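Bit of a strange request maybe. I'm writing a small parser for structure token strings and I need a real example to test against, not something I typed by hand. Could someone generate the tokens for this chain?
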Amino acid sequence: MLKARLQNLSPTHFKAAMASEAQAILIDVRTPEEFQQFHFDGALNISYLAPDMWERMEQLDKDKTYLIYCRSGRRSVRVGTLMRNGGFDAQKIFHLDGGLLNWEATEDL
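Reply from user aminoacidic:
Good idea to test on real output. This should exercise your parser:
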């Protein structure tokens, strides 16, 4: 299972990581239309469905810390796995478990 090989964070822990990891790069892998409706401040939009998605990912610094998310967690799991397999530091890739749907369902955020 792809998800088991990633660092999955609950919404609470993802929010804490956004606050504590000042140098982390936040990546929203949803479509531009979804991104326009809502996104976290400072997030980059690199759509999983875009034909140049991997080319854009390869331009990123592979040693930085990344916080990735999507609507339900499915696309971001795939992107996190691609990043891991593509030479990014697996210890610095963090995934919002359950995506924005889980974020919205979690109280006290």
